[in-house]
């Protein structure tokens, strides 16, 4: 997935593209507040440009890269936006998080992805 950050891109468009590519939910923040989707990324970022990302990237790596490259605070969640993804999970594995995942479900996944 290539992420292009420019002045015209809306948060909702970025989130839709992320969900289509990886099957998870991308939460974008303005400070400590989760964005509604109507915001322009130009109002939230410190830089513009492109970022190439593959499904083999870990959630933590993706979050850190986006923060460093664009100054954008994001979190990655399950497809139903119920629970945050594990840091050491790859983006390609996001669809494996069950809908309405419980703490027990996430503990099971945690042991599966433990390094």
Topology:
Blueprint: E1 2-5, H1 11-22, E2 25-30, E3 33-34, E4 49-52, H2 59-70, E5 73-77, H3 103-113
Antiparallel strand pairs: 1-4, 2-3, 2-5
By DSSP, the count of extended strands is 5
Residue runs with pLDDT of under 50 for 5 or more positions: none
**SS-derived structural category:** alpha+beta
Which range does the strand content fall in?
Answer: 15-25%
Outline: globular
Radius of gyration: 14 Å
Description:
The chain has three helices and five strands; from the N terminus they run E-H-E-E-E-H-E-H. The protein is α+β, with helices and mostly antiparallel strands. It is globular. The mean pLDDT is 91.
Task: Give the gist of this structure.
This protein is of the alpha+beta class and 115 residues long.
Top keywords for this entry?
single chain, 115 residues, alpha+beta, two-stranded antiparallel ribbon, 3 helices, 5 strands, 30% helix
């Amino acid at each position: 997935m290539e992420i292009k950050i420019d002045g015209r891109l809306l948060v909702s468009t970025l989130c839709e593209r992320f969900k289509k590519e990886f099957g998870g939910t991308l939460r974008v923040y303005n400070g400590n507040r989760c964005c509604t989707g109507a915001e322009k990324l130009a109002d939230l970022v410190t830089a513009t440009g492109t970022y190439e990302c593959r499904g083999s990237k870990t959630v933590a790596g993706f979050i850190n890269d986006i923060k460093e490259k664009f100054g954008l605070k994001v979190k990655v969640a399950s497809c139903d936006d119920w629970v945050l993804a594990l840091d050491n999970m790859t983006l390609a594995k996001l669809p494996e998080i069950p809908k309405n995942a419980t703490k027990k479900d996430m503990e099971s996944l945690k042991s599966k992805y433990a390094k």
